[in-house]
Amino acid sequence: MVNFTENATEKCNINHDIHQTLSPVIYIFVFILGLPANCLSLYYGYLQIKAKNELGIYLCNLTVADLLYIFSLPFWLQYVLQHDNWTYDELLCKICGILLYENIYISVGFLCCISIDRYLAVVHPFRFQCFRTMKAAVIVSIVIWTKEIITCCFVFTHAEVSMDADSHVVCFEHYPIKKWEHNVNYYRFSAGFLFPFFLLAFSYCGILRVVHKSHGTQKKKKIQIKRLVSSTVLIFLVCFGPYHILLVIRSLLENNCSFAEKIFNIYHVSLLLTTFNCVADPVLYCFSSESTYQNFAKMRDSCLTCLGCLRTETKESYPLNPPESPNRPRHEQQPDDGTERKDSCTANMGSL
């Protein structure tokens, strides 16, 4: 049973229908697709760490942040299906809310780390080596987690459950927005979105300049890198841009229930967009890698072999010791895994 002190705020009569229609579909979709995708992403990060590649530390931390939020989705699903009525205690509400915000801002932090790491690897492959070590990656990861945990501790000083006009106990929702949330939202917009976006854009603009000038990179590979970089920036803007813009709008204009009722649906659509980040991260930063595709193909073929479903003829470029071709040279059965060496400038372009 929820134990809370009713907040001194208006009880806005807001239509929560979007939570019973769109939200459950998104939560189920992200959970079903995001859980296996992030587990594979975690495995890829482990392979990178095993190969002494600092990129693996950032990928693992990014994936852990996504998985923590994915594990909280069943609670949010039950919440919205019960017409926004939180039936657990306030502590669990705060934990689930923190996991939501941790996913957003820790993901943003490690996306920036990955983009800067790729920038240094491609644009300055022989400089700043001290920033591209396992030790440096661990220190940066600790700093990011510590910063976000300290920020979220601020949440525990405020009540995060309240009762709405329908006598439902709502979690992490205040309408109209409270005074103490204004400065927090401005901080989230500037430090959690705007500054990281400039870092991301600067890093990838530098990468694109080098790729464009490179004569040793194939045209097909250049197109692939450009598409990946453009997709990364686009997904960053789509997943996080609308939400943070609406945070600022709410902080500036939401002073009464009338405005809160008007902005409720679009605000929650933008919040749902941030959830897609859990699916976009592993797709962009892991499965776009050629070496990861090879590892994934090997894993898949191994599973099919165990099930006795592997066909005699396959279109895969990297089969895992198929029994139908025992005389195949070993160098064709065991291709070079791109994770076994540190990136040079050209190799880093291919691993973006």
Automatic annotation (TrEMBL):
Species the sequence originates in: Columba livia (Rock dove)
Keyword terms, alphabetized: Cell membrane, Disulfide bond, G-protein coupled receptor, Glycoprotein, Membrane, Receptor, Transducer, Transmembrane, Transmembrane helix
UniProt xrefs under PANTHER family: LYSOPHOSPHATIDIC ACID RECEPTOR 5/SPHINGOSYLPHOSPHORYLCHOLINE RECEPTOR (PTHR24234), OVARIAN CANCER G-PROTEIN COUPLED RECEPTOR 1 (PTHR24234:SF5)
GO molecular function, one term: G protein-coupled receptor activity
Annotated protein name in UniProt: G protein-coupled receptor 68
Top-level taxon in the UniProt lineage: Eukaryota
Transmembrane segments: 25-46, 58-77, 97-116, 136-157, 186-207, 228-249
GO BP: any one term: cellular response to pH
Location of the G-protein coupled receptors family 1 profile domain: 37-285
Extent of Basic and acidic residues compositional bias: 327-344
